[in-house]
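Minutes, project check-in

Agenda point 3 was the complex the collaborators sent over. CS summarized: two entities, 445 residues total, and the question is how they sit relative to each other. Sequences were read into the notes so everyone works from the same version.
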Amino acid sequence: MVEFRIDRQSGMAAYLQIVQQVQEALRLGILTAGDQLPTAARVAAVTKLNPNTTLKAYRELEHLGLVEARPGVGTFVSAAPARPRALADSPLRGELADWMGRARREGLDWTDVSALITAARAEHYPAV
Amino acid sequence: MTTADGASRWALEARGLGKRFRRVRAVQDFSVRIPAGAVCGLVGPNGAGKSTLLGMAARILRPTEGSLRVFGSPVADPAGLADTAFLAQDKPLFPQFTVEDTLRMGRELNPRWDQAVAERIVRSGKLPLGARVGSLSGGQRSRVALALAFGKRPRLLLLDEPMADLDPLAAHEVAGLLLAEAAEQGATVVMSSHRLADVATMCDHLLAVAGGRVRLAGETDELLAAHRLVTGVRLTDGVPAEIARHTVVESRTTGRQFTALIRPRGPVEGDWKIVEPGLEEVLLGYLRSPAAPPLLTAAARIDGPHGQEQEDQEVTA
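CS then shared the predicted structure for the full assembly.
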């Protein structure tokens, strides 16, 4: 079982925070196949989070193939780990590394780069 | 519309609802609905009409105009009384009663009383059943009041500032208890609160009022997603044309910076930094700009608030 921590100042939607925390717990081995996630009522009691938000996060995790809902019982971590290292091998990662190298050679410091990333993110992921 | 299944889809349904206290119109022209199963935050400045709305839904105040239905039945119909629990801000309880006496009162006054639920809520706060209510702390009294409310097994729970005057720990416990029990029982919750950070994560629906009128109503996510916060360099006086094409809730210039809260109609053109605002930014924008048009999502909107006279018979103004 895990406990979630909702950062109300982060600006990130609460359901995404839960999705991320479950993904992280899976990477770290805090959650493994067959483990049960806390019920929405339990999350509500501990973190004051609306139960529908928790259920939304669980649906998203189910969509990603990370957990499965067993009606009337609860939500459990799936047996098969989904898409391992898919992002690490992606060409996007290499392109981003090249881009960042170029930015550095042109004399941009991290604050500049971070501002560019924030601006691009606001453009392409406005809801996140 | 009050078809057989439509009747239970909406926990609250107001059509042209109004309440006048002598000369003062506390609530006016109020047409909105809240779906069953929602946890709805009722927000707005002091004197906006929040408590009046809760009082009318709780059948403590009688509407002077329009109609208000709870799960499809007019508020004037006494049959619906058992469905609703109301927790006033001062959480009125008898101070000389013990916790056990208070629960017995609940049992004897309510036909659908669930002693197990009430005792579970009291026990989870480690409250001694023999303690007098007057000797309890604010957080403990809130817990007893919630036990009384949930023991009634209400379909609709109305709360006026449930976490006000509680210390942070007690407020956290009361909020968690409230949400967990509401989820467990499938109850609809309407709670007024000034704690916007709590409202943002506790409530899936929002009803913002100001001056007795609806300013925002609907699913919290949908209301936020309908807005954008736009900032950029000010090139002209006033609102730039490419921004004025959208619904501008609020705009201001600070030096060379232009900022606006808008409801975009299509893509925003120009070199602007565009972000989705938080609940507080949207809410303050609407409260500061009374002229900005209200926003009701499709779920909250009642089409044709007027011309429903045949449905408004329960109120004789």
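Noted in discussion: The first helix of chain B runs from residue 6 to 9.
Follow-up: revisit at the next meeting once the mutant set is ready.
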